[in-house]
Specification:
Blueprint (H helix, E strand, L loop, with lengths): L2 H11 L3 H10 L1 H14 L4 H8 L5 H11 L5 H7 L3 H12 L7 H4 L3 H12 L7 H4 L3 H12 L7 H4 L3 H12 L7 H4 L3 H12 L7 H4 L3 H12 L7 H4 L3 H12 L7 H4 L3 H12 L7 H4 L3 H12 L7 H4 L3 H15 L1
Helix pairs in contact: 2-3, 3-5, 4-5, 5-6, 5-7, 7-9, 9-11, 11-13, 13-15, 15-17, 17-19, 19-21, 21-23, 23-25
Length: about 325
């Protein structure tokens, strides 16, 4: 502790009211921070904590004092705690261990704590708060899932306006298709893909025009849902070399001539295509591969499986690649 902290601690222990009030009057922010630290370190007796509480109007510190003493404050102090939804919720949960009706108009203004108040304290539906909760898809979904534990018809027109919570509501609560919400869900490629995968558990033709435009989900839709080629999406997939190669390796599983002009533009994917798809040399692309020292070395070791004299001037440009190449050649002679 520093000198100021020691001085304040002593004023509390010696119950020097005037000095405590002076600190709060002239150094309020710093003094309150010291009070928080003293309470956190639990170096005061319960009587000293109770004595300190009479000087405090800070809602956070009052909440911490109530938790330490495990008892309610006087009404005047409780009013201070009502200024913050989190403090109201914590005070009701940890100290009152039940509802605090006079504070409920304040807590229902914060939807996160309103839902938690219903779940942890009321332990049932909170009808007075529902007209507010139902208007926000996130909290309406959480309320249906955690408190109602079933469909929440009055909130459904609001939930279905948001693709994320419409999908979650269908999966977790309806546990099946939700036709009324599908026009919204299908507008988002991520949730459309997941809805097809986890709710429909099969193809969803109406959403495919959206899904195919997102290369990641187009690829995964073909891989996991169609489980084969998806010709309509291929013009989109061909726009990106990573997804093109992934589509070839894991879905087509053989050469795809239309994609080769794209694959040959990158030494890494040209090497991988030769290794895993052609499973042999790809002469047309070797002039491109050899210009990258590392992938020229890889091509020599994994595809040619021996020396590649034409590429050696390029491999020499990288000390690391040249060392790997020479080590490979030495090991290959044994």
């Amino acid at each position: 502790m520093n000198r100021l902290e020691d001085a304040i601690l002593n004023t509390i222990k010696q119950r020097q009211d005037i000095i405590i009030k002076s600190h709060l009057a002239y150094h309020k922010k710093e003094t309150l921070e010291i009070f928080k630290k003293i309470l956190k370190e639990k170096i005061l007796s319960n009587n000293e904590i109770e004595y300190l509480s009479q000087f405090i109007n800070d809602s956070y510190i009052l909440l911490q004092i109530a938790k330490l003493l495990k008892k309610r404050h006087v009404q005047e102090k409780e009013q201070k705690i009502m200024e913050n939804a989190y403090y109201i919720y914590e005070y009701a949960k940890e100290i009152i261990k039940g509802r605090r009706p006079e504070a409920e108009p304040f807590i229902m203004q914060d939807l996160y704590y309103a839902c938690n108040y219903a779940k942890d304290i009321i332990k049932d539906r909170w009808l007075e708060a529902e007209p507010i909760i139902m208007q926000y898809p996130e909290y309406a979904y959480e309320y249906a899932k955690e408190i109602i534990q079933g469909r929440y018809p009055k909130a459904e027109p609001y939930i279905m306006k948001n693709a994320e919570y419409a999908y979650s509501y269908a999966q977790d609560i309806i546990q099946g298709r939700w036709p009324e919400a599908e026009p919204i869900i299908m507008q988002n490629s991520f949730y459309a893909y997941n809805y097809a995968s986890h709710v429909i558990k099969g193809r969803w033709p109406q959403a495919e025009p959206t899904i195919m435009k997102d290369l990641s989900y187009a690829y995964h839709y073909a891989l996991n849902i169609i489980q084969g080629r998806w010709p309509e999406a291929e013009p989109f997939i061909l726009k990106d070399i990573f997804w093109t190669y992934s589509y070839i390796e894991n879905i087509i599983c053989h050469r795809w001539p239309e994609a080769e002009p794209i694959i040959m533009q990158d030494p890494k994917y040209a090497y991988l295509y030769a290794l895993n798809v052609i499973q042999g040399r790809w002469p047309e692309v070797e002039p491109f591969i050899m210009q990258d020292a590392y992938y020229a070395y890889c091509y020599a070791e994994d595809v040619i499986k021996g020396r590649w004299p034409e590429a050696e001037p390029f491999i020499k440009k990288s000390i690391t690649a040249w060392d790997f190449y020479q080590h490979f050649l030495r090991m290959n002679k044994k």
